[in-house]
Amino acid sequence: MNLKLNPAPRAWYREPWPWLLMLGPAIVIVAGLTTAYLAIVTSDGLVDDDYYKQGLTVNERAVHDRRAADLGLETELVLGGDGDRIRALLRGKEGLRLPETLRLNLVHPTRPGFDQKIILHSEGGGVYAGVVKPFVGRWHVTLEDEGQEWRLFGDWRVTDKRSALRLAASGIASPTGFSDYNGR
Predict the structure, then answer these.
(1) Which residue, 184, 135, 141, 134, is CA-closest to 166?
(2) Can you tell me the distance from the alpha carbon of 119 to that of 180, in angstroms, rounded to the nearest whole number?
């Protein structure tokens, strides 16, 4: 009987262990190249090109916020239809003359391509209406008059087509569920 105690050695590339040990660094190289590619071809939407100018307008925005508080402004924004219509019920101090149009800015926190600027037209009695592209998720909301003398702002977490948001002059926003307004 002839037993082989030491079989003939196999070539290194036929063994699994060298390949297994090389797999980790290979994955890291591929991931690094993919990350570099994505960093080059996509824009960084979170960084504004005019951040310095925006910093200079902080005091101006504070004046607009104080003006809204002085006027006692508050509004309720309500989505209607299939989430493609929006209405605002604007209220203020007694005797306040309400503007004919309002500017509503819906700003997505991380995806500037989804931002919307909507003009809301008066329907009388402090009710304003406009058309929007349907949206869901978290949004920064700014409502201003046409002369940009005051503003109301807050965050809106839209979960369905009938979502509502109440904005007060203090800048504190409170989301509400369904409204008795029903998007009429």
Answers:
(1) 141
(2) 24
CB atoms under 10 Å from CB of 155, counted, come to: 15
Query: Rounded to 5 degrees, what are φ and ψ at 38?
Result: -65, -35
Give the 3-state DSSP-derived string for 106-160, with helices as H, strands as E and coil as C.
EECCCCHHHCEEEEEEEEECCEEEEECCCCCEEEEEEEEECCCCCEEEEEEEECC
Q: Where do the domains of the chain lie?
A: 13-41, 72-176
- Determine phi and psi for 121, rounding to 5 degrees: -100, 140
- The pair of three-digit structure tokens given for residue 170, joined into one six-digit string: 């203090």
Q: Does the 72-176 domain belong in CATH 3.30.1460?
A: no
Task: Indicate if the alpha-carbon torsion angle 90, 96, 102, 108 is positive or negative.
Answer: negative
Its pTM stands at: 0.66
Walking along the chain (184 residues) 10 residues at a time, the average pLDDT comes out as 71 92 97 95 73 79 88 92 91 90 93 91 94 92 92 91 86 43 34
